[in-house]
Amino acid sequence: MAAQSDGSNGFSTQGAAVAAAIGGLAIGLMANLGRKAVIQGMTAAAGEWDQALAAEHEATLMIFDKLQATTETNVAKRKLLLMQLKHALAKHAHQEENVVYPAMRANGLTDEADELNKDHGYVKQFLFDLTEMEPSDTLWAPKLSEFRAQIEQHMREEEDELFPSLREKLGDVGNHHITVAMNKEGFKIA
Ligand SMILES: [Fe+2]
Ligand SMILES: [Fe+2]
């Protein structure tokens, strides 16, 4: 490229800007990978797939606790906590729907997996309804309570009944395999 009238080289200026942008992108990607590693690391540290999912259930209920401690005047706080809840549930559902429920179907628990999967659809419905409502609406808290009651029931079915049932069918090697596969999937969404 020809030198510009001011003596600067247009290409090199542009090239430097592109290089800086790429460098910035690389740093951003690295930071994002680090953040993902920390988030998924917390899941993995909780143990095998079923223990890790139970730990995520507990963490999710803690977000509900915080939300239920708010009032109609805490609009910004409700929005922020709802966003955290959405993110936590998106990662959790991705792990269950992409690894655990398919493993259930592969081990004769098809109807049970389908029922759980249907519940996840209604989790999204509650999240949608709460997002659409104004957090200052007096009906917001009752909607949240209804959501919590349903999701706790779902968690109880998973933890007390269906996950132990799958664990028993999988055996040591199978359980380890599902743990690794689940953490791989969780990392994508973390
Ligand atoms: Fe679930
Ligand atoms: Fe779950």
Describe the structure concisely.
With about 190 residues, this protein is mainly α.
Strand content: under 5%
The major beta sheet can be summarized as: none
Q: Please state the structural category.
A: mainly alpha
For the CA atoms, what is the radius of gyration? 23 Å
State the helicity in percent bands.
Answer: over 70%
Mean pLDDT: 91
Overall outline = flat
Number of helices: 5
Distance between the termini: 44 Å
**Which kinds of small molecule does this entry bind, naming each only once?**
fe (ii) ion
Which stretches of 5+ consecutive residues score pLDDT under 50? none
Number of β-strand runs:
0
SSE pattern, N- to C-terminal: HHHHH
Task: Explain the overall architecture.
The chain has 190 residues and is an all-alpha fold. It is built from five helices and no strands. Helix 2 runs antiparallel to helix 3 (75-106). The longest helix has 50 residues, at 140-189. The chain starts with 9 loop residues before the first helix and ends with a helix.
What is the element layout, followed by pairings?
Layout: H1 10-45, H2 49-68, H3 75-106, H4 110-132, H5 140-189
Helix pairs in contact: 1-2, 1-5, 2-3, 2-5, 3-4, 3-5, 4-5
This protein binds fe (ii) ion (FE2) (2 copies).
Residues 96, 116, 120, 154, 158 line the site of one fe (ii) ion.
